[in-house]
Amino acid sequence: MSYSQQDSLLSPLRKAQSRLLYRQGRARDAADQAEVFHHAVMQGASQHYSLAQREAWAGALPRDGSAWLARQALYTTLVAECDGRCVGFLELDATRAHIVTLYVWPSLGGRGIGMQLLELAESQLRDAGMRRVIIEASLCLADSLAHRGWKSHGEEWVERAGERLPRHSMSKGLH
Q: What is the tens place of the pLDDT at every residue in 140-154?
């Protein structure tokens, strides 16, 4: 395949990437955050968790923008925006150097959006003098993080609406 043929095949991906903007969360993102969370759990996690587990997980937070707006007051929220809509987000407890949540719209998974949000959070933590970042990573995310230098401290379980969900406690040094 010639370079020009390869370039034309990659063009739609480049256009989508060029429309991405990474920024601090805003009040207007809250409703989109609710939808991204719901769909990331219900669709994006379907290869790793049962339907009952996903329903319990998705039900742990309301599918309502007001709940996510309240969370913006608790956590530093970083957003990936495409065409004016939040398509991914990360919530950071900067005082504890803890990634609280990381979700990307399922059809946009695997394009580096989540990793870019993580890099932005890591940069903020480094600038604040933190030496290490922690996350409780779902089974969907743990392998990808391990390949990027995150250390697993073992599997743990969290309960949501009577369902047990496995996840990995992980950390990464910030140098």
A: 999 999 999 999 999
